[in-house]
């Protein structure tokens, strides 16, 4: 007895979808504290300082220091940025030689953690490149209003 074309197509589609979820989960699961990651676009580096659960049974939260090493970068270091671990893994797929966390990581992490535990802090679910764009825009607007 042979499978109908529709059921075969459905099985293949289901397998591809399941594989896509397995790959993204496995990649996020491979993140480790102390890991240094090369991000897109080239020249952005993330160093993982902490990995925390979101407390709701969902995403893991990666707290990272970001270093923008591109020529002419407006912001070269962001000491602490909390980001969804799957988003981090997708934005920064390659490991590279170790680099230290930013000096202000621990203070930023402690402030964020306190806010997060009291329900007043969140984490980014956009790409690393988009996070840098948001921070640059916010800082530019803050500078213009002073």
Coarse structural class: alpha+beta
Low-pLDDT parts are 1-26
Quick one: overall form? globular
How far apart the termini lie comes to 75 Å
Q: Average pLDDT, to the nearest integer?
A: 82
Tally of distinct domains: 1
Give the SSE string: HEEEEHEHH
Quick overview of this protein structure:
The protein is an alpha+beta fold.
Walk me through this protein's architecture.
This protein is α+β, with helices and mostly antiparallel strands and 146 residues long. It has one domain. 42% of the residues lie in helices and 23% in strands. The protein has four helices and five strands. The protein has helices at 5-29, 85-91, 105-117, 128-144, and strands at 36-39, 44-53, 60-68, 77-84, 94-95. A five-stranded antiparallel sheet has the order 4-3-2-1-5. A hairpin with an 8-residue loop joins β3 and β4 (77-84). The longest helix is centred in the first third of the chain and has 25 residues, at 5-29. The protein is globular, with a radius of gyration of 19 Å. The relative contact order is 0.16. Mean pLDDT is 82; it is low at 1-26.
């Amino acid at each position: 007895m042979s499978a109908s074309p529709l059921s075969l197509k459905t099985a293949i589609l289901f397998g591809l979808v399941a594989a896509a979820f397995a790959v993204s989960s496995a990649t996020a699961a491979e993140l480790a504290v102390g890991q240094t990651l090369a991000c897109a676009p080239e020249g952005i580096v993330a160093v993982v300082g902490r990995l925390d659960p979101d407390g709701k049974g969902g995403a893991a939260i990666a707290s990272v220091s970001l270093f923008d090493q591109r020529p002419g970068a407006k912001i070269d270091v962001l000491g602490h940025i909390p980001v969804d671990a799957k988003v981090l893994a997708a934005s920064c797929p390659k490991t590279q030689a170790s680099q230290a966390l930013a000096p202000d990581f621990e203070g930023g992490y402690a402030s964020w953690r306190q806010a997060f535990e009291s329900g007043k802090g969140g984490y980014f679910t956009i790409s690393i490149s988009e996070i840098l764009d948001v921070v640059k825009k916010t800082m530019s607007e803050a500078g213009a209003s002073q």
